[in-house]
Input
Amino acid sequence: MTRHLLEIDDLSASELAEVLAGARAPLGRPLEGSGVALIMQLPSARTRNSTELAVVDLGGHPITLSGAEVGIDSRETAEDLARTLAQYHRVLCARVTDHRTIERMRDAIDAACLEVPVVNLLSPQGHPVQAIADLLTLEDEAGTALAGRRVAWVGDANNVARSFALAAVAVGMDVSVATPAGHGFSPHDVARIEAYAASTGSGGRLESAVTPREAVAGSMAVCTDVWVSMGQEAEREARLRAFDGFQVDEALLAAAGDGAVLLHCLPAHRGEEVSHGALEGPQSRVWTQVAHRRTAMRGLLGWLVAVGR
Output
């Protein structure tokens, strides 16, 4: 069966460990002579650059297609596009405005019995490759033994937070989340994260905190993301009011304890979800995260190609 990655819990705990290990190991050129399609319905800086270069690292040839070029469900259906690109490419990657789009692409590939993995480069439901990069960044800090460590998420429990929480509990970490009322994980998200943690047997837990200071206490990392994402511009003023008091600044990092680091997937809105001082300070690891987007993609693509043989 063709393996895909639409969300972190498409991987078992052991498979996630293999991806992480592969990201750090020489993988040769498993994509030699192969194309990898990058379908970008949304603007991209880190995602496009890291994925294209990871494909080149593995010997492949990346081709990036904008949303206007492919016209999903206007020019042709997501299913027809997936089956067309699968005739040319070894892997299909997509950054989409609707998570159902990438699910339909995956389902079309499977129905046609095509051995072409589909990878979620970002959707409203998740950002799994970012989560892999985050784990690699945390391993740089604590070694590969992340089990039993604590991390905090402060701010919006969005798609990035969802993937991060899944990845963290899979490796045995406890994730403490502090969000304003109405901006936390849905009951479905909580159930999914807890079920994945249980299935891995890792001992990782999802915890809800009342305040940011409560969430960060004893955490090795404090993680956040923008409060106003693409497509939420009309809600900007209301969201800024709702998130007042949830900024990650130098004082909050100090409350986390000695050695705590800051993670942010970028782009950042300095002065909103994160202070300039925190982002540029000695505890910031955001540029390591950026570098590991390429590392993570290399490990994931290498793993997908290997298991598909």
Q: What stands out?
A: The first strand starts at residue 35 and ends at 40. Residues 286-307 form the longest helix (22 residues).
